[in-house]
Structures are given as structure tokens and as C-alpha cells.
Amino acid sequence: MSLEDLVEAFINLEEEKVLKNVESLVKMGKNPYEILEACRRAAEVVGERFERGEYFLSELVYAGEIFNNVMKIVLPLIKREIKPLGTILLGTVQGDVHDIGKNIFKAFAEAAGFKVIDIGVDTPPEKFVEAVKIYKPDIVGMSGLLTIAYDAMKRTVEALKEAGLRDKVKVIIGGGRVDENIKRYTGADEWADNAIVGVKKCKQMLGLGG
Asked: For the chain, what are the domain ranges?
């Protein structure tokens, strides 16, 4: 049983095999962070296959469900019983129903010590605004796989400005195709194209180093 076996099973969407591998690796004392990273790498390959048309939306959604079930096993092993580093409000923006990237980021952020409030997928700007008013997060994280997500991210940042909330939160956007230009277009403070970098930048935005 190895991490590479886990990666292969995940890429092939063999859920039962994935979960058995995870449970075996946990029993063997494998570092939970390494297990999560292996699943992140596998999910990245699944996303690439989706972009090439080798996998369909249903398979991408299924991969997200597999990752969620992996998190149920692994996260309890690494959650810290300490004061959170900060609070992140997280959602996939309006017009996009993909949640695998969001869920991967959530797992790594929680493992790092952040409290994460997940408000789901296809999230309109007004829902982000309302959630910021309720939860008062330090950071708003917006995820999007599709290119149409960029306009939704921009509208959400503008909605935060109109509500007088933009200067009260840091904003980070995430997705496989985001970059510095998209960050400027949307008005976000930071961007990340993978979960590990995203968590590091969240720490940096709060003055916690990387």
C-alpha cells in the first residue's frame, strides 16, 4: 500500500479502493498531510482530464465526492484544538457548480488551523455579502473552474465594495487558470492556482508568514 497506489485509484475514480487505501495508510502511521497532498495531485489530474474532454462533468463531481469522503477520514487526525489562525469565508462563484478545488483548499486551510465557512457552489454576490455580514471573516475566498467565473468574481468584489465591506476583508481567488491578470481584473488581493499556495497566501495576508 503506497501513496502512488492511492493516486492511481483516485485518478481512476475507484472510490472503494481509495478509501481502503487511505484507511490502511492511516493505520500504518502515514502523515495525514501526505495523504491529502496525494489526493490533491490526483484531483489535479482528474481536472486536467476533464479539460481535455476525457472525463465528463459527472466524473468531476464524483471525484469531488471521493475527496470529501477522504477528508472525513483524514481531517479529524489533523484538526487543531487551538484558537483558529483566522476565518475564511469560502464559496464557488455564481454560474459555476464545481466544488472539488474549493473542497481541496478547504481541507488544507482547516489542516493549517483556519476556521472555514463554506457557503457552497453557484454562489451569487449577494450571498457572499450577507455571509460576510453574519460571520465577519478575515478572508473571502472565491473559487471558479470555468472562465465565466471571472466576471462573477469581479461582481462579488464590487458587491462587497457597495456594501461597505471590501476594506474589512482580504479577498483571494482560486482556480486552475487564475493568474495575476485575473486578480487585477476581479479586484482581489491575492490569487492561487493550487490549495497549498492558497493557504500560504492566506497566512501572509494576515501577517502570519507562510
From this structure: 3-78, 87-205
